[in-house]
Amino acid sequence: MSAKRITIDSKLLRQYSSRSKKRAPKKIRYRILIVCEGIATEPNYFRSIERKYGAGLVYELTIQGEGANTVQVVDKAIELQAKASPKYDSVWAVFDKDSFTDNSFNAAIRKAKSNGIECAWSNEAFELWYLYHFHNRVTAMSRTEYKKSISEAVNRSVQYRGRKPYQYEKNATDTLDILQKYGSQDNAIKWAEAQSLTFTDTKFAKHNPCTMVFKLVRQLIGEDEAFNKLVKEKIESAE
């Protein structure tokens, strides 16, 4: 997918550009690359985030669905970053444990880290991130359970009751709207992060349930303090 360029003044950008009314606001573009294992579910979700939050942020987002295994996703992210000019400011590999071997899953995460690639991995499936919008899941579950669990969670929500029974579909394009209307993104971030902190070793394939998607989402919606600091530094260096 070709990059969609977003060059709009964010609150942070306006804060620094307003120091001098005589100078025109500087438009600082940050470039984020997301390489996904899936070719529809994950790309559809992140494109929805771009559409909803892009107008308030300053970034250029490239989303690429690969339909590949864990290590191949990381390899593609490394390749695209190496070819990029200018380099991406943030590069993410998005993949799941699914049925991949423990060794393959762990190796992909280690390889990403050693090459400066961020990992928004999930164990077992990306849909765990969706489920956290409704309740705090702390016990292991199989990827075959997510469709039923998400459907039930939406149907049980107070706001959804009385409507036609909802059925989660993996490649749907309205999932972000459903999650935010009937669930809580703030809770999802809080619960996913809390669960990730219960694991202290590097046997990632055994971390079930666990998802790091909250880290990428936090960056895309402008709530990643470390990333925002980089934006600030980039603005100041351009003045």
For the sheet with most strands, the description reads: 5 strands, mixed
Counted beta strands: 7
Judged by helices, strands and strand pairing, the structural class is alpha/beta
- Determine the strand fraction and express it as a percent band: 5-15%
Helix share, percent: 40-55%
Fold and architecture overview:
The protein is α/β, with parallel strands linked by helices and 239 residues long. It has one domain. It is built from 10 helices and 7 strands. It has helices at 11-17, 41-53, 70-83, 102-114, 127-131, 146-156, 175-182, 185-196, 213-220, 225-238, and strands spanning 4-5, 30-36, 59-65, 90-94, 118-119, 122-123, 210-211. It has a 5-stranded mixed beta sheet with strand order 1-3-2-4-5, sandwiched between helices. A two-stranded antiparallel sheet has the order 6-7. Strand 2, helix 2 (41-53) and strand 3 form a beta-alpha-beta unit. The model is unreliable at 1-22 (pLDDT under 50).
What is the element layout, followed by pairings?
Elements lengths: L3 E2 L5 H7 L12 E7 L4 H13 L5 E7 L4 H14 L6 E5 L7 H13 L3 E2 L2 E2 L3 H5 L14 H11 L18 H8 L2 H12 L13 E2 L1 H8 L4 H14 L1
Parallel strand pairs: 2-3, 2-4, 4-5
Antiparallel strand pairs: 1-3, 6-7
Helix pairs in contact: 3-4, 8-9
